Amino acid sequence: MFKIISDSSCDLTKEEINDLDVSYVPFKITIDGKEFIDDYDFNLNDFLTDMENTKNPITTSCPSPFDYMEEIEKNKDRDIYLVTISSKLSGSFNAAQVAAKEAKEKYPDINIGLIDSKSASAGQTRLVLKLLEYLKENNSFEETMDKITKYIDSQITMFVLESMQNLIKNGRIKKSAGLIANVLNIRPIMMSNDGEIELYEMNRGMKKSLDKLMLAIGKLNKNTENGVLSISHVNAKERAESFAQKARELYKFKDIVVRQTNGLSAGYADIGGIVIAF
User: Fold this and answer.
1) What Pfam families has UniProt attached to this entry (predicted)?
2) How many Cβ atoms from other residues are within 10 Å of residue 64's Cβ?
3) What is the pTM of this model?
4) Final residue before a domain boundary, out of 129, 153, 177
């Protein structure tokens, strides 16, 4: 028996969460003093409306060790796998680590796998689904951890932002640089490198950046036949579905899945953003 517990950087749908028996430990997101809990009852439309209307930065707080420990306690008779957003982007991994240490002291025989996704959004979603595949193969706990660790290092996560307003408001890029980028219609392609976000390429216009993002898949992954392309979007279903269709025409992925982001990813990628993992 096993249990996967993920923080809410993962973009599985409510239906998938129930069907796959995955538990979420939510982030909390605050906009102008109003707190949103990124759980099963999260209202994305209200969140996006408030996010679009505020002039202030949104703030996020990761799950606490207590939050993780609560889920571990419920599943202490199973092998437990804790999956978090990249440890270089949030304190969620550290909180999970503290909870895992406490649980092992309390229950010496428990198996807890601590998994730093080195990713977020579409990348973390794809990782959780791959972990489920390995678990259904009846691998041992140690074999599963070895396989998923290797898989993490082979996965690539990339994204394109329609708007840089949240990055500007949260001070992740200088206001002057962000305003210039907006005026010049620059839409950068970003990617994860060992859990950190770095610039892959800069282009003018969303269409050009998405076209270059499509080409990047082939440059960075020469063997797509047995892989899955995971696409997450922030209130941009038509754009994401169009991207998926082009990918089907160009590449031979085993599957291509489009999902709406959950709250945390929506807060970072902003309205119109596209995140992919392959």
Assistant:
1) DegV
2) 16
3) 0.91
4) 153
